[in-house]
Specification:
By secondary structure, this protein is an all-alpha fold. The chain has 2 domains: 7-230, no CATH class; 258-439, no CATH class. The protein has helices at 9-33, 38-53, 56-69, 84-105, 107-113, 124-134, 139-146, 150-173, 178-203, 210-230, 233-244, 247-256, 261-274, 284-320, 328-336, 339-342, 346-352, 357-381, 383-409, 413-416, 419-438. α2 (38-53) crosses α12 (247-256) and α8 (150-173) runs antiparallel to α9 (178-203). The chain is globular, with a radius of gyration of 21 Å.
């Protein structure tokens, strides 16, 4: 059977994200069922939060830039087996090492931000290694995407995330310290790093190009800043919660503040796969129709799932995790509301058109609003107030980009989104949230 006939690049990237989410969720569930205390689970979440906080923005911005520059760059053009991927790999590795060094150097400051006792980050040496190897490996699935290797995306995801599940949880289940599970996480990412080196050497020549570095970084810089601002909402939420509350409360918040990750990842995978289609002006009308059709299809699946989970989360959380995490259900429900912004792909269109300034400005306004509202709302609704502030700021940011596309570039929302279907589902989602809150 020829699997490539049935597995498109979009579907492969979406399935990869489902596998990733499933494994991360299983690890979280296993930890709550193990002998690890809620405090140790909080340490694990803090470990991942710190690693993500120093990496998510430049990884996200540079990955999005890669999607736009791969077939439309001035340095190499469409040169066969060009050094583009090798140079991209070098840049990712450099920034990963730099991020690890910054965390190590600023350890006392970071410990203060997360209210960690002793001015030292737990498992600092392991964290350093993890940051170094985990950054570049994000390239793998996107290299396969750009090379139209859909089956390889799934194959890679299934193998490495299965290994991660066992490497992280088995030491804990055998009664070993959390550190052994973290060593397992580093080991799997080291294997991914070796995998990355192999495919880079397969698809790219070894040749340093300062010209490409300059072109790539200039394109990436506005997107990196944008994602640093807009994507930092979850990290700012974490900072505020960890500063005002103890590790147990932080763990409760983190286990709720998940915004249906598998839905977010599926939608993001669809958006990333669509981005290169807007790079050429002659293809944009067709790309808008394809985006509208694909988004409508996603809504028919994602909105009903979101509604069902809102209505059942308070019963599921004590079962899936344990009764100590019952309070996380409310945070989870609030974060589900963000899904209404995820189907508006104005950012995808702008990135594909290489128009990044509006994205930066919208992100700047979003983060300012999020911080101000979080500091206000937390005094009225506790940790739930921080979640409410995030939802409001996300809606504002998306509305601004929709306005820019319509007014400045004459691209109306209805051209790339089925407004009727979107409106009906959004109303039903908010009604289900209100019913759950009242009951």
């Amino acid at each position: 059977m020829n699997l490539k006939k049935y597995i498109t690049d979009v579907r492969a990237l979406q399935l990869f994200q489902i596998i990733r989410f499933g494994v991360l969720l299983l690890i979280s569930i296993i930890f709550t069922k193990s002998d690890l205390g809620i405090g140790q689970i909080g340490v694990y979440e803090t470990f991942l939060l710190i690693a993500g906080a120093v990496s998510f923005f430049w990884i996200g911005g540079m990955l999005q830039s890669l999607l736009g520059i791969f077939e439309n760059n001035e340095t190499f053009g469409k040169e066969k087996n060009s050094p583009l991927l090798f140079n991209t790999f070098v840049l990712f590795t450099f920034f990963s090492v730099l991020a690890a060094v910054i965390v190590y150097a600023l350890q006392p400051l970071i410990a203060d931000l997360f209210s960690i006792n002793g001015k030292q980050i737990p498992y600092m040496k392991i964290l350093f290694m993890y940051i170094v190897v985990s950054g570049p490996v994000n390239l793998i699935e996107y290299i396969y995407l750009l090379k139209n290797k859909s089956v390889e995306i799934i194959f890679y995801g299934a193998i490495t995330f299965t290994l991660q599940l066992f490497a992280v949880t088995l030491p804990i289940l055998l009664g070993y310290d959390l550190g052994y599970g973290l060593y397992g996480l580093v080991f799997v990412n080291l294997l991914r790093f070796l995998w990355l080196m192999i495919i880079v050497l397969k698809y790219s020549r070894i040749k340093i190009s300062m010209g490409y570095w300059r072109e790539y970084l200039l394109l990436s810089f506005p997107l990196v800043l944008s994602i640093l601002l807009s994507g930092s909402a979850q990290y700012i939420d974490g900072f505020i919660i960890s500063f005002k509350y103890d590790e147990a409360t932080f763990a409760i918040f983190r286990y709720g503040a998940r915004e249906l990750p598998f839905i977010v990842l599926l939608i993001a995978a669809f958006g990333n796969a669509m981005t290169p289609k807007f790079s050429k002006k002659e293809n944009r009308e067709q790309a808008k129709l394809e985006l509208k059709k694909g988004t409508k299809k996603l809504m028919h699946y994602m909105f009903p799932i979101s509604i069902v989970l809102i209505l059942t989360s308070q019963y599921l959380y004590p079962i899936v995790f344990n009764p100590e995490f019952t309070e996380s259900a409310l945070i989870f429900n609030i974060y589900i509301l963000i899904v209404v912004t995820r189907f508006v792909f104005s950012r995808v269109i702008l990135i594909g058109m290489k128009i990044t300034k509006p994205i930066f400005y919208s992100s700047l306004m979003e983060i300012i609003m999020n911080i101000i509202l979080s500091l206000i709302f937390i005094n009225y609704w506790g940790i739930a107030g921080v979640a409410y502030a995030t939802v409001v700021s996300y809606v504002f940011e998306k509305g601004f980009l929709v306005y820019i596309l319509k007014v400045k570039y004459k691209i109306k929302l209805q051209e790339y989104l089925d407004l009727k279907v979107y409106t009906i589902y959004s109303i039903l989602l908010f009604i289900s949230f209100a019913i759950n809150l009242i009951i």
